[in-house]
Design goal:
96 residues, mainly alpha, 0% strand, 83% helix
Length: 96
């Protein structure tokens, strides 16, 4: 009876070892996959940071342009260039 018990015990240990090895392999693949995804997310985060900085600069430009549009200078430039209007005491010379 002692040898049967040992064989069952060895078979149980062998099957447990096999299951542990399979779990380690599966976990290794999962770790590698997560590491790759992490790299992708870091790259995307960097791209988004760059895009954010560009949009902040664009926001400043638009704010400056908005201030210019509300100014008297813009109204005068538009009146001169598009409507051909001038002040009464101004003389415009045009090239032929």
């Amino acid at each position: 009876m002692g040898t049967k018990k040992r064989k069952k015990n060895q078979a149980g240990k062998g099957s447990i070892a096999f299951i542990v090895v399979i779990l380690l392999v599966v976990m290794s693949f999962q770790i590698v996959r997560l590491y790759q995804k992490d790299k992708e997310y870091i790259a995307r985060e960097n791209d988004l940071k760059i895009q954010y900085e560009e949009e902040k600069g664009r926001k400043e430009q638009l704010s400056d342009y908005e201030d210019y549009i509300g100014s008297r200078e813009y109204v005068e430039d538009t009146a001169k260039s598009k409507l051909g209007m001038v002040y009464d005491n101004q003389i415009i010379f045009r090239e032929k």
